[in-house]
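Fill in residues.
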């Protein structure tokens, strides 16, 4: 999803810890799990906005559902202060329809760092101002392809920046909300369809039962009438006229009832003969007309249906029970469904009641379709959970069945098939010390003694190690309040636990240092008003020495405010100095006389910025100040000391400037060349150079040098330097020439032209960061006094600083490579393709140049995977990727589009040139040899689709569609060929 940022100025939002991709991934997984476990949209939206608000720390996060026109409604929100609430408020944005529906529909979000300085339409700026918005980020929520609403984050107290990781996280959350909305709509449709179907079936069933009861009563009355007539004739008890009249009345009533029945009524013998039409009804049947009387049932309908009906007639007469038959047939180009009920009448005849059930079948089909859609949505949620780093468990307490996801098993080092889904398996893996506690927690949660189930459990990994998992669970209850199901999520917390243990150890060490330090050490956090101005500082830390100096206990002052406890800091001007340290980031060293708050001493303190606050180290120097006579006697020494401190201070300033430049550089070469002019003044009368380790780790190469002459070889192997071999600084003076490194040239022993002495001192310092040797910092001089211990220490600090910068730059280069490259083939990924193609199209439009686009697909790739395995399939992809990288120009872009499909972007290539180059690549692919178990396998071929800008499209999407359509035609035409788009 693309993003639009409307403000150039980016503002810091405090120094709080920024969200990371891992924290965003955990929130996305939590929302996906909630969506999987519940169809309640309100609950899912509340979990989403509360999670985003806590993660971003912004003033207001809301979900805004669009309404017809220019308005919408705030469905759910989370805020830092109730005054920012917009809950259930209808919001009218008059600029919305004119400016933003289409970009939102295309998945484009809008991020504004500062509403006051952004280039916004006046109506939109007024709209945001009325809502109290200072900075805004709005991400579209798409339900399938329909724009449903927006996920909005607001800063109402001031401008704030929206880092890329936060915008990407918000986009993932918006996708999950869209899935939840779609799921809720499908559930609503399913419930509506199901209710309508159930009502229809109930009505039709009741109607049929009433008709059958009336029909049975009339048939029985008819048979009784016939028997009475027969008896009258035989016994001549009743007059013939009366009996005939009664019989006629009974028959008339029966016929009227039968005629009113909408179903088709037939009488037939059990062998299917002598079919008689009782009521024509509304049923479509094969060969049905008014002349069916006397025919056999096999003459009136398909043979299979007729034979089944004869069999059911036998069953009805044999058992005396009504038999049912469902069947379908085609007529007039449509398929009809009917239901027949066969009831016994007499000894040899049955009554067949036939009803059209096509409408019911259609309703059932619609219901199944809705259920399939709902299942598809749930399957999508299942995939989201599988893609996350969390495992989950689903336990049916009614049946006792339990399910553990493959990811849960993978956290313990097992494949899905290696562990059965059972409670016994779970009990065997959890540590005994945690088993009883977990079972008790489950019982407490399901008995409502606790309202939340969150715990850390320890399990045995397949390799024997212990895995710490954070487990969170929710349960479901039936209508009687009984727990029938529990769903749990599991997150691997092993690394976090180890970090916490290391942090605890570090805290203990820090505590020991603080407690034993003779100087007072304090740390404070800034207290700001609504405008962001610092109005006070809150105590965070105070060691015993500082508590003794100010005469307060640590328990008393922690959490208290500086000006409330020691107002003399404001009167003495110290508070303003501390504010300057926090605002500028520059350290402050100060000597002052303090005669406030019951303290009467001279102090020396050093304050440095610490987060959104500062740390200060101070000592009582009263005795020093009172010993002026002693100080006068040692004045010269102090002046020398001050000179050294000044020099050290200037060196530190240069180091700080070097650090700034190193952080701003984008490559190692740029960093080294940038700081060389800053390094040379730090080491007067010295020559030096910076060497970096090659990618193969077997050579060091010179990146930059300074001074009169560098006495080291520009390239050498690591073993040529004692500093690299020993992993520490290596200093060699005139009295240790035998220890000089072999990468020092032989000319170093000769005096330089115009100099009377040869090189006197060499200094080699390995640049090491995170345990990895990244290079060498080398100095040499003809003046022995040019590299005293202070300068050596400075050189060591510089080497560490440059080493860390090189490590960071290499890490940045690695991350950038990973973000745009496909790890298997080494080609660019699809995201890079889309960005590059859009840029090339824009450039081609400006300069009226063509662009060739080639899409290729490896033929029968699935057969390679199925026949030779996925490893061979991966090898095929690697070979093709390598070939593409070798065959394209430096300006071309080769990408893996997805699966076995790859794409080439050929800037400034005409359609003819593009097709020709595609055919050359096709021929080269057909010559590739793919080894399998030492033998080449089937010949590899590929199909190509070619399109060209502007002939086949004016934008990247239409170009790719045209090339893809041509590729499809190449596949259809027999593969292993190049087809140009129409």
């Amino acid at each position: 999803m693309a993003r639009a940022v409307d403000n150039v100025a980016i503002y810091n939002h405090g120094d709080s810890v920024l969200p990371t991709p891992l924290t965003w991934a955990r929130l996305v997984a939590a929302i996906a799990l909630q969506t999987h476990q519940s169809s309640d949209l309100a609950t899912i939206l509340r979990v989403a906005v509360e999670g985003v608000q806590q993660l971003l720390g912004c003033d207001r996060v809301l979900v805004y559902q669009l309404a017809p026109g220019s308005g919408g409604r705030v469905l759910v929100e989370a805020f830092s202060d109730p005054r920012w609430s917009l809950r259930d408020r209808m919001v009218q944005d008059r600029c919305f329809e004119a400016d933003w529906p289409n970009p939102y529909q295309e998945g484009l979000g809008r991020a504004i760092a500062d509403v006051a300085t952004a280039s916004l339409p006046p109506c939109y700026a007024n709209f945001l101002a009325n809502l109290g918005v200072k900075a805004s980020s709005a991400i579209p929520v798409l339900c399938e392809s329909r724009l449903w609403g927006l996920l909005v984050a607001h800063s109402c107290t001031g401008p704030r920046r929206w880092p890329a990781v936060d915008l990407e996280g918000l986009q993932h959350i918006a996708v999950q909300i869209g899935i939840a909305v779609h799921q809720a709509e499908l559930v609503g449709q399913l419930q509506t369809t199901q209710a309508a179907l159930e009502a229809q079936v109930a009505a039709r069933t009741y109607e049929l039962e009433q008709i059958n009861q009336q029909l049975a009563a009339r048939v029985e009355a008819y048979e009784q009438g016939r028997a009475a007539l027969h008896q009258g004739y035989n016994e001549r008890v009743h007059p013939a006229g009366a009996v005939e009249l009664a019989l006629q009345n009974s028959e008339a009533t029966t016929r009227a009832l039968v005629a009113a029945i909408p179903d088709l009524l037939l009488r037939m013998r059990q062998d299917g003969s002598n079919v008689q039409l009782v009521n024509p009804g509304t049923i479509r049947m094969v060969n049905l007309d008014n002349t069916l009387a006397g025919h056999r049932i096999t003459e009136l309908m398909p043979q299979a249906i007729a034979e089944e009906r004869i069999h059911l007639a036998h069953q009805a007469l044999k058992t005396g029970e009504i038999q049912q038959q469902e069947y379908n047939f085609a007529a007039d180009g449509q398929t009809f469904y009917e239901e027949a009920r066969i009831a016994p009448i007499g000894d040899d005849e049955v009554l067949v009641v036939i009803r059209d059930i096509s409408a019911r079948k259609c309703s059932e089909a619609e219901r199944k379709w809705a259920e399939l859609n709902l299942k598809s949505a749930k399957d999508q949620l299942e995939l989201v959970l599988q893609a996350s780093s969390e495992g989950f468990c689903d336990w049916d307490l009614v049946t006792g069945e339990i399910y553990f996801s493959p990811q849960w098993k993978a956290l313990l080092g097992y494949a899905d098939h290696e562990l059965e889904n059972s409670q016994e398996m779970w009990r065997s893996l959890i540590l005994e010390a945690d088993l009883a506690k977990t079972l008790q927690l489950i019982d407490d949660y399901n008995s409502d003694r606790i309202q939340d189930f969150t715990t850390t459990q320890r399990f045995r990994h397949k390799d024997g190690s212990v895995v710490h998992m954070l487990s969170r669970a929710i349960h479901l209850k039936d209508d009687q309040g009984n727990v029938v199901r529990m769903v749990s999520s599991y997150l691997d917390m092993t690394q976090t636990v180890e970090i916490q243990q290391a942090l605890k150890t570090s805290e203990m060490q820090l505590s020991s240092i603080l407690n034993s330090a003779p100087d007072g050490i304090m740390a404070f956090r800034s207290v700001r008003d609504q405008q962001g101005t610092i109005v006070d500082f809150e105590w965070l830390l105070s060691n015993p020495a500082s508590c003794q100096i100010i005469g307060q206990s640590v328990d008393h002052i922690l959490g208290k405010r500086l000006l409330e406890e020691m107002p003399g800091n404001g009167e003495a001007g110290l508070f303003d100095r501390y504010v300057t340290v926090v605002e500028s980031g520059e350290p402050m060293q100060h000597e002052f006389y303090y005669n406030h708050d019951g303290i009467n001493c001279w102090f020396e303190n050093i304050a440095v910025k610490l987060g959104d606050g500062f740390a200060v180290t101070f000592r009582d120097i009263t005795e020093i100040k009172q010993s002026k006579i002693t100080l006068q006697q040692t004045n010269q020494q102090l002046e020398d000391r001050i000179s050294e401190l000044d020099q050290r201070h200037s060196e530190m300033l240069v180091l700080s400037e070097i650090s700034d430049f190193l952080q701003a550089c984008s490559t190692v070469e740029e960093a080294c060349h940038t700081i060389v002019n800053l390094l040379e003044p730090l080491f007067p009368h010295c020559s030096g150079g910076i060497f970096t380790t090659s990618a193969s780790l077997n050579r060091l190469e010179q990146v930059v040098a300074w001074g009169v002459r560098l006495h080291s070889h520009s390239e050498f192997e690591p073993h040529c330097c004692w500093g690299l071999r020993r992993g520490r600084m290596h200093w060699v003076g005139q009295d240790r020439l035998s220890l000089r490194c072999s990468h020092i040239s032989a000319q170093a022993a000769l005096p330089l032209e115009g100099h009377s002495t040869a090189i006197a001192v060499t200094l080699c310092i390995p640049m090491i960061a995170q345990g990895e040797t990244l290079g060498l910092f080398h100095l040499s001089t003809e003046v022995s006094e040019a590299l005293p211990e202070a300068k050596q220490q400075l050189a060591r600090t510089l080497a560490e600083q440059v080493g860390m910068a090189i490590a960071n730059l290499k890490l940045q280069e690695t991350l950038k490579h990973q973000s745009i490259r496909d790890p298997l083939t080494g080609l660019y990924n699809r995201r890079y393709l889309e960005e590059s193609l859009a840029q090339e199209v824009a450039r081609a439009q400006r300069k009226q140049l063509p662009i060739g686009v080639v899409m290729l697909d490896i033929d029968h790739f699935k057969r390679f995977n199925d026949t030779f395995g996925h490893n061979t399939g991966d090898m095929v992809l690697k070979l093709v990727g390598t070939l593409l990288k070798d065959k394209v120009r430096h300006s071309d872009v080769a990408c893996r589009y997805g699966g076995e499909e790859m794409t080439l972007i050929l800037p400034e290539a005409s359609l003819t040139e593009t097709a020709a180059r595609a055919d050359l690549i096709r021929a080269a692919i057909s010559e590739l040899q793919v080894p399998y178990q030492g033998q080449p396998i089937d010949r590899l071929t590929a199909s190509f689709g070619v399109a060209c800008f502007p002939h086949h499209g004016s934008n990247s999407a239409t170009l790719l569609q045209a090339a893809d359509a041509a590729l499809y035609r190449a596949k259809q035409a027999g593969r292993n060929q190049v087809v140009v788009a129409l």
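Residues 517-626 form a domain with the Beta-Lactamase fold (CATH 3.30.450.20).
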